[in-house]
Amino acid sequence: MSFTAPSSFRALLIIPSLLLLALALTACGSASDDRDDREEPRSQREESPAETDRAVPEPASTRQPVRDDPAETGAFPFLPTSGETPEPDTSSNRDADRQAPGIALFPPSQTSPETDRAALEALYHATNGPNWDYLYKTWLTDAPFSEWSGVETDEKGRVTELDISGYRLTGEIPPELGNLSNLETLYLHENQLTGEIPPELGNLSNLETLYLHENQLTGEIPPELGNLSNLELLDLDENQLTGEIPPELGNLSNLELLDLDENQLTGEIPPELGNLSNLLRLDLYDNQLTGEIPPELGNLSNLELLDLDDNQLTGEIPPELGSLSNLRWLYLNENQLTGEIPPELGNLSNLELLSLYGNELTGEIPPELGSLSNLETLSLYVNELTGEIPPELGNLSNLRGMLLQGNQLTGEIPPELGNLSNLWGMHLQGNQLTGEIPPELGNLSNLLRLDLSDNQLTGEIPPELGNLSNLETLGLDDNQFTGEIPPELGNLSNLETLGLGGNQFTGEIPPELGNLSNLENLGLGGNQLTGCVPSNLPYLAYQDPLPYCP
User: Fold this and answer.
1) Closest Cα to residue 67, out of 262, 240, 274, 326?
2) Quick one: which of 371, 377, 328 has its CA closest to 357?
3) Could you give the C-alpha distances from 83 to 89, 234, 453, 519, in angstroms and in order?
4) Residues 75-84: pLDDT tens digits?
5) What is the pTM of this model?
6) The predicted structure's pLDDT at residue 105
7) Contact of 263 with 285, CB cutoff 8 Å
8) Who is most buried in 65, 84, 121, 486, counting CB within 10 A?
9) Which pLDDT score is estimated for 78?
């Protein structure tokens, strides 16, 4: 996912529930303007908060990562201390090893407009320039570089921005680009570039933005990128990069966005990333990362989005993440995390999305989560959580998606959940809940989906559920409900799915159900009903078929 300027928020977004980022920059736009056009974190993929955990509104900053923010950095003796600027590593011989025959790489003091031209020519020839659509017509001419498409220069004619994104370029990135010593912005994203990222890019001491996302790049991330002391935005997502995340990236003290998602990266998350005190967004999802989440990430005090989902991370969630006071989106889902949910997460007062689903988490849901006053999506489904649903969750006045299904929750549904006036989806199915449905759930006027199926709920269906005028899905099947089906359910004019099967309902089917003109699925089997089914309803007769009314 690529991060675009804040449109909102993964991300961002977050979310939510929860819900990918492409940057479209014009050749004449400035780097700062471009930042404002980037998409939100993980974009808003939500069809509704009840459906997905990935709905994340985008950051409110300029091209700054938006996903959650940590506290500040842990001290690593081999990294620069606060206030120091890491010096580029000039001791490496990798540049010489990677030079093509006849290619010279120069220290910044020996570069000039002539070396800039040589670098641009190398890019043209390495990426099949004659097939660059209209771009090729302005390149390799005697015109000033500022008249070459995608190139911007300073008053001395030195190249400061190179934007050749989205032109389906093929070939490899030439190492000669490392000679563009005045370069501040490099956009090569959304092409079809192959090969490895040249370590020579680590020579670009003035570089602030490096976008190489959405290509077909392979190999490892060069540790030399850790020399880019002025770098603010690093986006390498949606490539085929392998190997480990270089700990040297922890030297990038000005970095605001680190986006490495959707690659094939392995190994552990370097604790040195906890030194990135200006980081706004850390996006590592959909890789093959292993090991535990470093507690040092709790030092990222400016972090707005932390997205580590869809990896192979193990161990417990570090309570230090509760220090990320600016965090808005936290994605840890689809890993192999164990242990209990840290109650410290209840300190994340700006959190909008908490996605922990698809792990092996145990223990009870911390009541402290009820303090997350800005939370919009709570996604804890498919874990091994036990205990009762905390009534404190009824304090989450901004909640839109509550996804707690597929756990081992017990006890009764708290009537306090009826206070969630903004809720779109309540998913409690597949637990071991008991007791009756609280009539207070009939207050949820914005609810679209209510799924309580596959529990051990008893008693009668409260007629107050007939007040849920926006409801599209009502799942009550496979419980132990008794009594008659309330005729008030016939008021649910937007209902598309009604699951009542596998209970102990008696009596006749209310003729009022015939008013459900939008109903597409009706499950009534496995009860003790009598009478007939209104002829206009799509009755699915799995068991104990009933006749249609004449």
Assistant:
1) 326
2) 377
3) 18, 21, 57, 63
4) 222 222 223 3
5) 0.82
6) 58
7) no
8) 65
9) 21
Give the tens place of pLDDT for each residue, 264-305. Answer: 999 999 999 999 999 999 999 999 999 999 999 999 999 999
Q: Which two tokens stand for residue 401?
A: 């998606």
* Tokens found for residue 181: 């010593």
**Residue 381 identity:** Y
> What CA–CA distances, in Å, run from 450 to 29, 374, 444?
47, 22, 10
Tokens of 535: 């002829």
Give 109's contacts (C-beta < 8 A, 6+ positions apart).
Answer: none
Tens digit of each residue's pLDDT (9 = 90 or more) over 296-336: 999 999 999 999 999 999 999 999 999 999 999 999 999 99
Q: What is the pLDDT of residue 531?
A: 83
Q: Six-digit token pair at 448?
A: 């679209």
**What contacts 495, CB < 8 A, 6 or more positions away?**
471, 472, 473, 474, 489, 516, 518, 519
Specify whether the CB–CB gap between 21 and 1 falls below 8 A: yes
Which tokens is 283 given?
């996006």
- Measured CA to CA in angstroms, residue 285 lies from 10, 179, 235, 259, 307 at distances of 9, 33, 13, 9, 6
Closest CA to 252 of 300, 324, 194, 304: 300
State both tokens at 315.
């161990």
